[in-house]
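Re-run with default settings, no changes from the original entry. Doing this only to confirm the output is reproducible before filing.
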Amino acid sequence: MAEPVIEVEVVYAAVDRQCLLTVVVPQGTTLRAAVLASGMGREFPEVDLANCPVGIFGKQVADPDTRVLQAGDRIEMYRALLADPKEIRRQRAAKAAKAAEAKRLSQP
C-alpha cells in the first residue's frame, strides 16, 4: 500500500527574483525535511537550506526540525534584512525634521 502524501509549497524571494515550488512529501514530514527535499538549493545555491530561518504562512517556526507539516502549508524561507528597519525609520524622521526646519526658516 502506498504511503499517504501531502502537497506543500516552498517559497523563497531573493533581491532579484522569487521562486515558488510545489512539493509532494510523505505525511509526517517535518518542515526542515521538506525544505531540503524541495530542490530550492538548485535554484539558490547560496542559501544554506539546513540552517536558514523558515516559517509557515508568514509566522516563523522556532524548531523546524520537529514541526510536522499539514497539507497545503506554505513554507517560507527567510533571508537576512539588508538594512535595520529601525535605523531606516530614524534616518527618514531626521531627514523630514531637517526639511521642515529648513522650510520654516526660509519663510518670512
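The chain has one domain: 5-82. Helices lie at 31-37, 40-43, 85-106.
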